[in-house]
């Protein structure tokens, strides 16, 4: 039986991970879970799964939970996330928190030689070099949960990485894929949260609308698969049936297909290299779908994707700035404090003003992350 530490248990990926655990009770047990402040959502989950350790974001939330929960050890903050991730009994850490907050616990879990199922792409964007270097040094597997990266991982099964000619990442286009740039002027939070194919957390849904999600995924793919940016392509594919592809040097292309359901890549990361039934997922009925569409990505229509490529190619601390500015700007948009198009303007401004550091260490990354967020916030004054 695999013992799981699930960071971000109350979120979109977290709840779907728990659905997979419910389905395979003989295979998996929840040893630890972490969430932010959402006590009402968490209490029934704690009662159901009875984890040994529960981690919350802060002391106030811990006090609230202490009054309700008896049988679990309750911890808080970044230290709590680390303690839950490195606990002796834990086999797999599922990192499904939102944002670069997941970085320190990921690094410590790697040092403790835990297998990592990584949904938390911001961790790889902000510090991919540290994460991949640690994983190599400690011989730890990083199993992608993001559907595109899971597809590529599956397409690469048994292949020699030297034979990769290019990675082709598919993009659904997000909620504004049929709008021209001029039409983005007055769009609301509600419009942006209305994704055509996937139901996800708020931040990633906004990232999908701005195409920053695809930009973050390009950087994520660069680190996970060690492929240069010139060999990572993005194409628009409205149906989200092909989750991504690998073209090899002999021009043979491997694609992974399936219904758009995150439980598939979540479960694959938990069972790898094996597979288990996933009866709740809709089978792919290709006759029903009949036609698949592909379009070239328009980089002027989606400047956030171009910014991500540029930051990735520049390397070093540029992607830390890209990620931190984006996280803060998206949060400000969700709070109705800035417009949708302000998001890309604020990120662009931070990137233009940043003096790149070639190989930042963890403390440099955390301080750049913090300063970037503060500067982006200060635009409200
Ligand atoms: P959600 O916003 O739905 O969930 C985020 C989770 O993180 C919640 O459980 C939240 O708790 C928790 N959390 C937030 N801050 C903290 C903190 N300081 N300490 C501990 N826990 C915290 O996000 P998603 O599930 O959509 O996304 C999670 C990650 O997975 C992101 O990196 C995203 O890019 C990636 N991803 C998501 C996909 C999806 O389909 N949703 C697809 C591919 C990747 P609380 O509820 O209390 O706020
Ligand atoms: Mg994805």
Molecular structure report:
The chain is α/β, with parallel strands linked by helices and 381 residues long. It has 3 domains: 2-140, 3-Layer(aba) Sandwich (Rossmann fold), CATH 3.40.50; 147-300, no CATH class; 315-381, Orthogonal Bundle (Rna Polymerase Sigma Factor, Chain: A). It has helices at 12-23, 39-49, 59-68, 77-86, 103-111, 121-138, 147-155, 189-192, 202-210, 212-225, 263-271, 286-289, 303-314, 318-334, 340-353, 362-378, and strands at residues 2-7, 28-34, 53-56, 73-76, 92-95, 115-118, 142-144, 164-171, 232-236, 242-248, 253-257, 295-296. Strands 4-3-2-1-5-6-7 form a 7-stranded parallel β-sheet, sandwiched between helices. Strands 11-10-8-9-12 form a 5-stranded mixed β-sheet, with helices on one face. Strand 6 (115-118), helix 6 (121-138) and strand 7 form a beta-alpha-beta unit. Helix 6 runs parallel beside helix 10 (212-225). The longest helix has 18 residues, at 121-138. The protein is globular. NADPH dihydro-nicotinamide-adenine-dinucleotide phosphate (NDP) binds at residues 8-14, 34-38, 41, 57, 96-98, 101, 119-122, 146, 198, 200-201, 203-204, 262. It is an enzyme of class 1 (oxidoreductase). InterPro entries: DXP_reductoisomerase, DXP_reductoisomerase_C, DXP_reductoisomerase_N, DXPR_C, DXPR_C_sf, NAD(P)-bd_dom_sf. Belongs to the DXR family. Its EC number is 1.1.1.267. This is 1-deoxy-D-xylulose 5-phosphate reductoisomerase.
């Amino acid at each position: 039986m695999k013992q799981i530490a699930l960071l971000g248990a109350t979120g979109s990926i977290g709840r779907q991970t728990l659905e997979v655990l419910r389905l395979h009770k003989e295979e998996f047990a929840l040893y630890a879970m972490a969430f932010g402040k959402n006590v009402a959502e968490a209490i029934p989950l704690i009662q159901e799964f009875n984890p040994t350790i529960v981690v919350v974001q802060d002391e106030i939330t811990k006090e609230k939970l202490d009054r309700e929960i008896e049988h679990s050890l309750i911890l808080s903050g970044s230290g709590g996330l680390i303690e839950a991730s490195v606990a002796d009994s834990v086999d797999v850490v599922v990192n499904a928190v939102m944002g670069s907050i997941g970085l320190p616990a990921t690094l410590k879990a790697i040092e403790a030689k835990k297998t990592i199922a990584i949904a938390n792409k911001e961790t790889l964007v902000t510090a991919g070099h540290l994460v991949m270097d640690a994983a190599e040094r400690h011989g730890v597997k990083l199993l992608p949960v993001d559907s595109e990266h899971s597809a590529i991982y599956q397409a690469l099964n048994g292949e020699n990485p030297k034979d990769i000619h290019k990675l082709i990442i598919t993009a659904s286009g997000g909620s504004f894929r049929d709008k021209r740039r001029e039409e983005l002027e007055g769009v609301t939070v509600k419009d942006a949260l209305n994704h055509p194919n996937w139901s996800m957390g708020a931040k990633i849904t906004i990232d999908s609308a701005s195409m920053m999600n695809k930009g973050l995924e390009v950087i994520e793919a660069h680190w996970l698969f060690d492929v240069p940016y010139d060999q990572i392509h993005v194409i628009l594919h409205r149906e989200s049936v092909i989750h991504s592809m690998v073209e090899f040097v002999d021009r043979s292309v491997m694609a992974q297909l399936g219904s758009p359901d995150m439980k598939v890549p979540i479960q694959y990361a938990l069972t790898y290299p094996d597979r288990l039934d996933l009866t709740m997922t809709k089978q792919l009925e290709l006759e029903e779908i009949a036609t698949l569409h592909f379009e070239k990505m328009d980089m002027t229509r989606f400047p956030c994707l171009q910014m991500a490529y540029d930051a990735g190619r520049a390397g070093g601390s540029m992607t830390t700035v890209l990620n931190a500015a984006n996280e803060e700007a998206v949060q400000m948009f969700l709070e109705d404090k800035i417009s949708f198009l302000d998001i890309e303007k604020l990120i662009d401004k931070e990137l233009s003003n940043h003096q790149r550091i070639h190989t930042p260490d963890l403390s440099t990354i955390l301080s750049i992350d913090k300063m970037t967020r503060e500067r982006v916030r200060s635009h409200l004054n």
